[in-house]
Amino acid sequence: MHPSRTETPTARRQRGLAALPVTLLLFFAMLLAAAYANRGLVFEQRASANQYRAAQAFEAAEAGLEWAIAQLNHPQRIDERCLPSSTATDPSFRERFVRIDHVTGQQAPVTWMSGGTPVALQPACVLGAEGWACSCPAAGHPMLDVIESDDGTPRPAYSVQFDTEAGSGLIRVTSTGCTSAAGPCRPGAAGRPDASVRLQVVLGLLPGLSSPPAAPLTTRGSVDAGAAALGLHHTDAASGGITVHTGGSLIGSALRLTTAPGAAAAVSASTHDAALASMAPARLFATHFGLDKATWNGHAAVQAVACDAECGVPLAAAIDSVSSNRLISIEGDARIEGPVTLGSPDRPVVIVVDGSITLTGDVTLHGLLYASAVHWDDAGPPRGRVHGAVISESGYGGSAAPDLIHDATLLRSLQRQTGSYARVPGSWRDF
Q1: Which of 242, 308, 343, 379 has fewest C-beta within 10 Å?
Q2: In the predicted model, what is the mean pLDDT of residues 258-284?
Q3: How confident is the model at residue 21 (pLDDT cuts 50, 70, 90)?
């Protein structure tokens, strides 16, 4: 009988020990491969978001430039929200933000004192659900609300700043656009927008009156006052003291001529000027206004006034309206009956009549009157008066005895302070 023996089972071989680490390594490698493959998508998403914000800020800045130009060319009186105002003491946008020297034509921003330091006034706007909401402060920083869209994202905004530019009639405009009403688009307030863009352009003033006349009365034809005591006054020695400039004769038995001190009134009249007599009406207009009549009528700052009958009332209403118009055009013939006052020493006007004009009695004008022909009839005292100048394409006549007074300061004011702004070619730049 064989002795019994106990058998020890042989340990089995373990398999699959490396499966988990290998799986994890493969998963990690696949994750890296996926991340590597999608890196371009992530980059494009970020680039697209940045481009969207940059484009939003750029368009806001460009909108600020266009808005500023439109406002500068609009004579409407505005309040501190940049909305039309009927308050006579409220200035226009141009008057609120730009100061123009009527002698030199140099333009500069209107400033306010901040801690003893002059700071240029800045208008600003933010895009709301119903359009742009703006602030045009009379002093201090613009007051803008932080407006968000329905999904909670900020609304774009812009601010505008005016600066002095070398040269007469020039002003530099800088518009800063932002993705929100913060930072440079909300001066004086804290915060920072996601993106901002600054654009700049130089604006030139196309004057409403390019070259003022040298005499209180200028005409290609003759002046026939008959027995009326027509008064022609020009006491400025610097501009020659010419009382009348005609291409024809000066007829009048009771003329009242006043010239510069020390000069003879008899020689102050310049008559029978062959060059003036032969000048075409269109050239006469272009000589004084720098543009043809149709282009001048297209000035953004020119207000057309319709006159079916008597024109004094609608003219006075247009000049004294909330828009405070200073450049007026009238199509066809016109008739003005006094008493009426058009313009003022502080706000003279230019009236261009595309036809003849007949004035009667006490008509007072501060500014320049241009027409194809001028006729002034008498309606008894007081006599009419023009402070500025009168230009006629054909001639002057009538039984009235108004006083036509050449006012060089007033005419320079029209030359330097009226007209429309336009971009100077090549001046646009971004930063």
Answers
A1: 308
A2: 92
A3: confident
